[in-house]
What we know:
alpha/beta, 21 helices, 55% helix
Amino acid sequence: MLSNKFLIDDRSPRTPQSKVTEVFDGQALNVPYRKFRVLLFLTLTLVTSIVGFRMMFDILKPNGTTTLEIILLILFSATFIWIVTAFWSAIIGFVFQLFKIDPLTLKKQPSIAALNENLSNKAFESKVAVVMPIYNEDTHRVFAGFEASLMSLLETGNSEQFDFYLLSDTQDPDIRLAELAAWQNLLKRFKGQSQKIFYRNRPKNTGKKVGNLKDFCERWGAFYESMIVLDADSIMTGSCMIELAYQMHSNPKAGLIQTVPIPVRQETFFGRFLQFAAQLCCPMLATGLAFWQTDNANYWGHNAIIRVEAFKNHCGLPTLKKRSPFGGDILSHDFVEAALLRRDGWEVILLPNLGGSYEEVPSNILDYATRDRRWVQGNIQHLGMLTIPRMTLLSRIHLLFGALAYVTSLIWLVMLGLSTIDAINRAVTKKEYFSSSYQLFPDWPITKPDLIFSLLFLTFTLLLLPKLLAVLLALVHRRKEFGGAVKLIISSLVEMTFSIIIAPLMMVFHAFFVVSIFLGFKVGWNAQPREGRLVSWFEAIKASGLGVLAALMWGSVTLYFSPLFFYWLSPVLLGLVLAPLMIRWSSSLRLGLQARKFGIFAAPSEITKPRVLAYLAEQLNNNDTKLSNNASHSAKQICLIPKLPREQFEPMPLQNI
């Protein structure tokens, strides 16, 4: 058995960062009209939501509102606000992206050439740690991504102030052996950098990722001004890391700066669908968010730079002494950490136009839903933290909307169920036209078809217009990056169609997750599959079979009692009935490759592959660096337990939340 004690590398002495940081005359971000932006966005959201609420109320009011209809009105209002929020963020993002205006400074965006030209001039004296927390991951993929990011930084010639840490919480002994062997191979290839790249394994993964980063901050945080946090599947270019470090050093009030991680390296149909949609829409949506969130943005857990001192002093997360699902370890810690930083005066900034930040996504619907299941559990927990003392309004909105992102699926499903009951009840109930013995004129049922269709049109506009605007934006500025106008339009139509088909399935998945969490069921946060795989028919049917049976029964009853309502409901029922086929079919690698062959879902990361992704692909295909995750690595292969730099322990205090 390998010892859990690490050697200390005294050859690399370090000085606490507070003693070496010099005054830097960088160009700080000027974010004008902060309060006005928030007020503008909230006004647009509130006014549009009131319009939708009033239209729904006017539809239900003429014949008298029942208890069932009042419940429907309340549920509709909650989901409508969520849709409106996303809509206005997209609209604002479209305007700023169209005219190439920076959403933070409100100035013209510099060109890519200008950014590259200024890269070498962005010098700073502060030390930066690039940290990658991992837990029982695919060793070969993790080290390939780690090395690709490291190599990209070295190629800039401006890596002197950076150190790299692979922070392993791996508990599986076979995977740990594989990590140690991979580490030795990495050191052989980077002999000149051995004092700047480190590997640490914790004997126990106390606190999971939160505890992993806490351990780093307490032991080595004093030597760094900031840390760039990467996930196990993250890839980041050297220029992106330098820009993040430069912005952090130039903005002394910044506690966290978040990039927009773009999904890459997808091969299955579903994976490439997600990759295309993200590369098409995320820059626009993130731009809108950055405009109104200003210095109170959110943290997405990775691909961000964090000021170590601020994080260490204000982001120590306690175990919550509450009942499930609100108690225990804080799972979706990123939202909470951003809220705590902002609470204590540190700015949290989103840079939507900074490229070179990448991640990977699940390759099929079931793995995607499994990841969402973990996020649902963490985000539901946020509902119990809305009353954290001194937290800003926008931070509370982030926590609330993070939970609503999944709770709205349950609300939509309940609304559909209640609407079905109401439609059937109206169909089978005998109409009474005279409610009083002395009534002269009958009570004719009143319907407002024009208002109903107007509300439907408004809802569909709020849902679909952002996607159409993202396509228009790409046609104006980025059509070549998506393979040309024709491929872009065809890909967008396929993406929208597939989104509509699988939307009912994802609604049912998320609704089930929310209910199961409130019933006390929990899920482990293990390593997620990274590579593409074909889902078996057994898995597909097992995951969606009950939904198929429920949809068939639901549709049969509705068709018998209320044919008109059945036709309105048919898109939802069709999506549920086709669920097993969609799960299996969209996980196909062959179909994904065929789609790529014909240019469907062609994305910028494929058309003009960045150097860092090309290097990653080379490493993944390099047989000399491939390592199997088993215990076959002999002690001879693992020459030394990795040496670590000198420590300066400073405790990370727990916060009162």
